[in-house]
Design a protein that fits this description.
Elements lengths: L4 H15 L9 E5 L2 H7 L10 E2 L11 E5 L12 H4 E6 L5 E7 L10 H14 L5 E5 L2 H6 L7 H9 L4 H5 L4 E4 L7 H11 L4 E4 L3 E6 L2 H24 L9 H11 L20
This protein binds 1,3-dihydroxyacetonephosphate and zinc ion (ZN).
1,3-dihydroxyacetonephosphate (13P) binds next to loops.
Length: 280
């Protein structure tokens, strides 16, 4: 297990996120839907004897699949130091309502408290593209800061972040979905988040953090990094002024579509009637 490519990729994302400052204490978590080849290659090191536990929601389209997930209360910082203490491989049962730990969390514990949101996201993104396998939650400070000053609306949030870096609409052309403040760790917030993930790769949780998804660990980390970098630029701009002298205009965004092979929803390309950041 510990020498496998999947464990190395999972670990690298956790460490990279920690060194970005996105994982205070046990903040943040990571899940990965394993491939049939990985399961085949590693399963003789797993044990199916542990009891089934309730997921707290239902994910029938993930029945029988295996996932690598961080443990609840575990620190991202410690994953590179002791993987088996901090991470589990779990299997989802045939009705998609229960899971069992088949490897890891060797000193006890359970998967992340955000397991319902992770699995519900993994289910809807699998429907979109069977190779979308990674869901990552972090607490990046600039994105969180913006949820206190921008309207919690998908169109405004997306547009203001897009304007901060030309690469943004290229990296996440479907935009950002925003979830108003909710109690974390349960089914309800998972329902709201997975509704967003049906079409988008980025969901922001107001006053809490961000969820992103991707095909592999690099792409998923890179998406979190891109959104947070643009949020940082916006925080810097807003700390100088409540308005912009220059910016990327709707027609400029439209001009990116051909060269980069993307399609941008007109919802985000509204004409602004105000030059104040965050106003339409
Ligand atoms: P866990 O330690 O249960 O993964 O929770 C951390 C977190 O960020 C909750 O939103
Ligand atoms: Zn969190």
């Amino acid at each position: 297990m510990l020498n496998s490519k999947v464990v190395k990729g999972f670990t690298k994302l956790c460490s990279d996120g920690f060194y970005q400052g996105w994982h205070e204490r046990n903040g943040g978590n990571l899940s990965y839907r394993m491939t049939a080849e990985e399961v085949e290659a590693l399963k003789d090191q797993w044990c199916e004897d542990r009891p089934w536990a309730e997921i707290g929601t239902e994910v029938p389209e993930l029945a029988g699949e295996y996932f690598m997930v961080t443990g609840s209360g575990k620190y991202m910082r410690n994953i590179e130091l002791d993987f088996a203490d901090n991470v589990a491989v779990i299997r989802v049962n045939e009705s998609g309502t229960k899971y069992k730990i088949v490897w890891g969390l060797v000193n006890g514990g359970r998967p992340t408290s955000e397991l319902p949101t992770h699995l519900m996201n993994l289910e809807v993104i699998k429907r979109r593209d069977p190779e979308l396998r990674v869901v990552y939650h972090a607490h990046p400070a600039n994105t969180i800061a913006l949820t206190f000053v921008l309207p919690l609306k998908d169109d405004v949030f997306t547009r203001e972040i897009w304007e901060m870096a030309t690469e943004c609409p290229v990296v996440f052309p479907q935009g950002i979905g925003v979830v108003e403040w909710m109690v974390p760790g349960g089914r309800e917030i998972g329902v709201k988040t997975s509704e967003i993930m049906k079409t988008k790769n980025v969901a922001v949780w107001a006053h809490h953090g961000m969820f992103v998804c991707g095909h592999d660990f690099d792409e998923t980390f890179g998406l979190m990094h891109t959104v947070e970098k643009s949020a940082e630029i916006l925080v810097k701009v807003m700390s100088m002024s409540d308005r912009k002298r220059n910016t990327i205009q709707p027609d400029d965004f439209r001009a990116l579509q051909g060269p980069f092979g993307i399609r941008l929803d007109e919802e985000f390309l509204y004409e602004k009637h105000s030059d104040r950041i965050g106003e339409k």
